[in-house]
Structures are given as C-alpha cells and as structure tokens.
Amino acid sequence: MDLDRTRFGPAGYPSGAPRKEAFGYLRKLGLDGMEYQAVRSVPKNEELIRWIGDEARENDVALSLHAPYAVNLASEDVRKREASLGRILAAASAAQLMGAGHVTFHPGYYGQFSENEALRMAIDSLKRLRALMDARGLNIELGPETMGKPSQIGSLNDVLTMAEEIEGIVPTLDFAHIHVRGRRRLRSEEDYARILDRIEDRLGTLNGLVIHFTEVEPTKSGYGERRHHELGSGYGPEFEPLARLMIERDVKWLVISESPLLEVDAVRMKGVYEDARRER
Ligand SMILES: [Zn+2]
What we know:
By secondary structure, the chain is of the alpha/beta class. The mean pLDDT is 96. The chain has a single domain (7-279), classed as TIM Barrel (Alpha-Beta Barrel). 44% of the residues lie in helices and 17% in strands. Helix 3 (78-98) links the parallel strand 3 (62-66) and strand 4 (102-105). The strands form four sheets. Strands 1-12-9-8 form a four-stranded parallel β-sheet. It is globular and about 50 Å long. Helix 2 (46-58) packs across helix 3 and helix 8 (239-248) packs across helix 9 (262-279). Residues 66, 104, 106, 145 line the site of zinc ion.
C-alpha cells in the first residue's frame, strides 16, 4: 500500500483504551498504524465504518483491514469458493469506505489437491474476484497472507506467485508464520535477508508491504503456531535483526503487532527500529 514512512500499530483496537478513544490513544503512544480486524464478519454499519476512517485520518493512523478467516479459495465446493469471494469483496468495500489501503486475507487449504493444483484454483478465484472488484470500482490492494501450517495455501512461494500473476495483489508477510512453517527458520539476520531477497527478486520492490510480527511458540511437531508470545519471550523470531535490515534497505512498511501485548509491543518494535537507525 502507499506509505509515506514506516508505521507501527496493533492488530485490532488497542487494549488500553475504550474503542471510542482508540485512535487518539494510538497517537498518544506514538503509533501511526492499525490493522482493523473484520475476522469474524465485515461490519455493515456504514456510519461506523466512516467513523473509523475519520478517526484514523484525524490521528494520522494508516489502516489495513483483515478479512474474515472463513475463506477457502480452493474449496472443492463451488458454493464455498463463491462465499469466500463474497467475504473478501465485502471486506474490500468496507476498506474502501474506511480509507484502508490493504485487505489481508487467508487464502485457504490445499485439501485433497496437490499444492500446485490448489494454488492454481486460488489464483483462478482471485482473478474472478479482481474482475468483480473492478466492476464495483474497488481498487483496494489485496494481501494473501503467508500462513503457518503446511496444510494452508500461503507458503512464501504461493503468495509471491499470486502477486506475480494478478494485478493489485501484494502479500501480507506474517513473519511468525514464515518462522513456524519452516520449523523456526528465522534465527539470524541472514535468514531474514534471504527472505527479503526472494521477495525483492519477485516483486521488484520491498516497499509498501504490510507485515505481521509477534514472537511465537510452535506446535510440538515444530510446524504451525501454538501460541503468540510477547517480544523478548525467548521463543523468537527476534525483531532486532529485521529492524536492522529495514533500516539498511530503507523500506517503508506498515508493521502490525500481533503480540498478546498488542500496542505495548508495537511501541517496543518502534523503539527497536529507532535504535537500529541511530546505531547505523
Ligand atoms: Zn491473518
């Protein structure tokens, strides 16, 4: 999405203030982003949606929006695929009304299909979705998220392929998911650098990305996430090496904290990022 600078904020309303005061509170904390959570359903109340957009603008908070979880673009059941498109479409309408620049969504599951077949189905679904969006004048960026479980469509390769093949698609990078899908693969700055190189290679730029960050406890098998943890929990991945690369490569990102300490850890991530800048 269009970003004037790197911004930080929580996944959803901050926990330290009533909702009516959420955006002023974010500003007071020095935060300037938020991903609105429409993960169960998309709000239909236009007045509420406009209010969120106005409050965010007045307090200089850049918004993305997380679409409902109930999406499977590669379901074998055509009705479920259509319902999935409908949910992302509703999310895109709300995002446009709210002034959110990016809609994050979970692409779905491989199910009984091979990984490649499921990816092809998801891409066909997304092409249909883009056409439906065009017909409604919705020019919102769609962000398939990197997912944590090997059964989920959303490997780094999956989301980069979607972005290459369809206009208006820019992946949402969830680093905790990348970490646990690869059995805790993000251990050093080089590990992060390899991921960023792949993205830059295939998208042509690293700018304007929406990223999710939290430390994460893997499941017993080592694949997939068991639970999110606060920064410094020891579970990893660590934010410091990524912050150094963000400065080195001079990227503009919307960094969304998915830590259990939502806005508290968003403030800490911003601090780590600013320290990394001073140390260079
Ligand atoms: Zn998500």
